[in-house]
Amino acid sequence: MSQASFALLHRHQPGDVIAFGPGGERSRAWLLTDVARVAGQLPSPTPGSHIALVCADRYHFAVALLAIWSRGHAVALPPNGQAQSVDLVADRAEVLALLHDTTGARGDDFRPWLATTPANDPPQLSAITAERLLATVWTSGSTGAPQPYAKTAGQLLGEASLWADQLRLPPATPVLATVPPHHLYGLLFSVLAPLLGGWRFDRATPLHAETVVARLAGQQRALLVAIPAHWRSLANEDRDALAQVELGLSSTAPLPAATAEALDERHGVRPLEVFGSTETGGIATRRQRDKPSWTPLPGVAVAQDHDGAALVRSPFAPGGALEPLRCADVVQVAADGTFAHLGRRDGVVKTGGVRVALAEVEALLLATPGVRDAAVIAVDSAQVARGTELWAAVVAPGLTVAALRQALLGRLEPVVMPRRLLLVEHLPRADTGKLPAGAVRALFGPVRELELLERSVAEDGLRLRMRVPENLYWFVGHFRAHPVLPGIVQVHEIVMRHVRAERPNWQALLRVQRLKFRRTIGPDDVLSVELRFAQPQGTVDFTIVRGDDPCASGRLVFEASGDHA
User: Fold this and answer.
1) Cα(180)–Cα(191) distance, rounded to whole angstroms?
2) In 368-481, which ranges are E strands?
3) Dihedral-angle region of residue 460 (phi above 0 means left; psi in -120 to 50 means alpha; beta otherwise)
4) Measuring CA to CA, which residue among 303, 304, 305, 283 is closest to residue 295?
């Protein structure tokens, strides 16, 4: 970044309102008073130390965030506000404390540390150098386990400064957000950009359309920061319900074309979509009613490799603008540098020999009249020839599964049609709007198969990597407090299932030899499995390993018939 350091609050005067809404207005002077009081309660920093933070009140979040930085720590932000996700972050070795504003929760409720009135001359914030580590943020877990990414001031505050300049909003612009501040999208647009741009933010995080409309009442020329699922609900509100919205932002997923059209024609709102990721930061923007392609942000360049994967050069990404970062997104780049987004490589699967993008099937469901929300996942199929099949969970009051299938007929090849369609009252979206794949899978009930991560054929057998789902059917009764995968299930589900698929001509199992169970296998364990086809014909030796720890081994002897083709 060209900027060597960043000064927060430099566009606010001491009496300017920083935050409004439930809990009352707070000025710049009051904010600085609270920052100093909270910073004084924090432990001394150590090399690489972090303080975890999750708050329901956006003002409390801003106070704690600035206090953590003032004290010399980085902040650790969970991917969502669920207790399990918070624990994932708070239990890391570098995290010295957890700050929150929830009664009875783990960690430190810092509300008693706050001032009742602002100081006349509160301590000011020091400028933050661009190279300083400011935060570790986690991916949402929508396509796998959440992953941490470190952010420097040059990346985090550099991007927030860009948005504060690019959005060109006047001082004191009210900012309302339906996404929480611990999510990167919410952090950038509902906390950092307002602190850098001279705006003021709503302390609340309304989720439902009617609550958002109520929060907008009385505001003028507001910035509304929301996600596609919330924009879809707002599009159905009465005309003039969004009259106070000067600018709308949408991110975390592409805005459905039908939603963009309804917002424009019904409310005169054309949200600016922000394309980016936890790893890269912001990459590009578009208003799809004006132009469907994406335009990179200033200083950001997007190219594509031979597979169509996006190569992003950005000052907000790891390595800066010097080295391209290869992303999971598939793009088609035009001569003018704009690009079309064609989906994600991890969102394209093959079922029955046909490649299909999960997002396309979701889009078809969402375009069906009466469908309010939908999620499509790929599941390993028990039918070897199919390999993978699609399952869909749909929120569609008044519709039947038969009606949904009929709506999809003619628009999907039969082999791509979701094998299971489940009607639900709501989808288990996190407070960021994301849908963890595991949570969607859990809607369909206990899993009977382990998740196959990798499969490779060796000269003498198979090599497999598998993950043990938390909601595996075979954990029922084994045991409630400490789930353990039974040994018979290990032999049958981990070994025999794949032997049968690879050697279909082998007949009955005759003998089990050399069987040893050394360590227990539990939920979320990732296993390496080796199957070695030995002599005489019909014999397979197996080992099951977790990390470096052997869990089970043995030999199975089958009645062999013919060759293994």
Assistant:
1) 10
2) 373-380, 388-395, 420-423, 451-458, 461-467
3) alpha
4) 283
Residue pair 185/3 in contact by the 8 Å Cβ criterion: no
Q: What does the alpha-carbon distance between residue 264 and residue 236 come to, in Å, rounded to a whole number?
A: 12
**How many Cβ atoms from other residues are within 10 Å of residue 533's Cβ?**
19
Alpha-carbon Rg of the chain, whole angstroms?
26
Beta strands in 409-508 (DSSP E): 420-423, 451-458, 461-467
Which DSSP string do the residues of 334-347 spell out, in sequence order? -TTS-EEEEEEGGG
Which secondary structure element, helix H or strand E, spans residue 506, and what is its range? none
Q: Is 473 in a helix, a strand, or coil?
A: helix
Domains of the chain: 1-150 (3.40.50.980), 290-350 (2.30.38), 352-442 (3.30.300.30), 451-558 (3.10.129.10)
Looking at 5-152, list the stretches that DSSP marks H as alpha helix, in order from N- to C-terminal side.
28-39, 58-71, 83-90
Bond prior to 61 in cis (omega within 30° of 0): no
Q: Which residues have CB under 8 Å from 414's CB, separation 6+?
A: none
Q: Are 503 and 564 in contact (CB under 8 A)?
A: yes
Is 36 in contact with 122 (CB distance < 8 Å)? yes
d(CA 48, CA 43): 13
Listed in sequence order, the DSSP H helices in 73-198 are: 83-90, 153-166, 184-187, 193-197
Token couple for 518 = 């050394």
Query: In sequence order, which ranges of 91-203 are alpha helices (DSSP H)?
Result: 153-166, 184-187, 193-197
Q: How far apart are CA 362 and CA 364, in angstroms?
A: 5
Let me know the angle formed at the C-alpha of 135 by 134 and 140, rounded to the nearest 5 degrees.
Answer: 160
Give CA–CA dist 556/533, Å, rounded. 10
Q: pLDDT in tens for each of the 565 residues of the chain? A: 446 789 999 999 999 999 999 999 999 999 999 999 999 999 999 999 999 999 999 999 999 999 999 999 999 999 888 888 899 899 999 999 999 999 988 999 999 999 999 999 999 999 999 999 999 998 766 555 678 999 999 999 999 999 999 999 999 999 999 999 999 999 999 999 999 999 999 999 998 999 999 999 989 999 999 999 899 999 999 988 999 999 999 998 889 888 999 999 999 999 999 999 888 999 999 999 999 999 999 999 999 998 889 999 999 987 776 788 888 888 999 999 999 998 877 677 777 667 787 888 888 898 899 999 999 988 876 554 446 788 999 999 989 988 898 888 878 878 788 888 999 999 988 777 778 777 888 898 887 788 888 889 888 899 999 988 877 888 877 786 788 999 999 999 999 999 988 888 898 999 999 999 999 999 889 999 999 999 888 999 999 999 999 999 999 999 976 554 4
Angstrom CA distances, 545 to 380, 429, 464, 465, stand at 22, 34, 11, 10
The answer to whether the CB of 96 falls within 8 A of the CB of 48 is: no
Q: Which helix (H) or strand (E) holds 488?
A: helix 487-489
Q: pTM of the prediction?
A: 0.73
